[in-house]
Amino acid sequence: MFTAEEIQHLEALDLQQSLFKLCEIIPDGIIFSTSLGQEDQIITDVIFKNKLPVKVFTLDTGRLFYEHYDLLSNNNSKYKIKTEVYFPEATDVENYVNEKGINGFFHSVENRKECCYIRKVKPLNRALEGAKVWITGLRSEQSENRQTLKMLDWDESRQLYKFNPLLHWNYDAVLKYIEDHQIMDLPLHKKGFVSVGCKPCTRAIEPGENPRAGRWWWEESQKECGLHSEK
Ligand code: SF4
Questions:
Q1: Are 81 and 222 in contact (CB under 8 A)?
Q2: What digits encode the pLDDT tens for the residues 3-42?
């Protein structure tokens, strides 16, 4: 779908230019998943301000922070464009909770991964159906698993391209962009939460800790929920 020249060109452009160029190459079938984190708020701002032809959606797991809902509502008011919301299947959640308990994800890594699968991965797969390019806010410094990613990566399992325009940004660049462009973000970031997921599974981190250390902090796992099957 992309020529070598187009890939090289995309990788050389700044954030806004690269998203414009991407939409020029693929006029329909581009989708962006936002977790409402800082990186995703930056990308949302570029897409919505420029009315780019990109479907923007988020996953409501049912266990998010109250602040997520406030930010989602404020985004809708600010940009006058609604972010689509995908929910898990009710019967999946009911069966899980009735079998494993309301907080069953604390009991084992398998339980936790099953909860992430039901509440995140399955709705994500539904949202991505038919998409050609999936834009993400992934950055390589966020975790070891993300260091081998490319800016434009073929996702074999989902049969689509992933475009990661912030891949080489460091966290200081994210904070500077947010300040310079007056981007709204979660108030939790100022309280030590860097990577913010579901409320029961996220804690604040200490300065110098790995940004993903606050996710599933009770586990020694890879700190991933299966949304991004990094190589
Ligand atoms: S982050 Fe926690 S509550 Fe959210 S889907 Fe995963 S295990 Fe379930």
A1: no
A2: 999 999 999 999 999 999 999 999 999 999 999 999 999 9
Sign, CA torsion 136/137/140/145: negative
Q: 107 CA to middle of ligand 1, Å?
A: 12
Pocket test for ligand 1, best of 59, 111, 118, 119 (most atoms within 8 A of CB): 119
Q: What is the CATH number of the domain that holds 10?
A: 3.40.50.620
- Specify the pLDDT at position 231: 37
pLDDT for 208 equals: 85
| Residue nearest (by alpha carbon) to ligand 1 atom 6 | 116
Whether 101 is covered by a domain: the verdict is yes
Chain CA centroid to CA 24, Å: 23
In a domain, residue 53? The reply is yes
pLDDT at 123 over 90: yes
Q: What phi and psi values does residue 64 have, to the nearest 5 degrees? A: -80, 170
Number of structural domains, the chain?
1
Return the sign of the alpha-carbon dihedral for residues 170, 172, 177, 182.
Answer: positive
Neighbours of 223 (CB within 10 A): 20
If you average pLDDT over residues 98-126, what whole number do you get?
96
Rounded Cα distance between 204 and 202, Å, is 7
Give the structural domain span for 88.
4-201
On whether residue 142 sits in a domain, the answer given is: yes
Question: Nearest to residue 154, comparing CAs of 138, 173, 132, 182?
Answer: 132
pLDDT category at 144 given cuts 50, 70, 90 is confident
222 lies in some domain: no
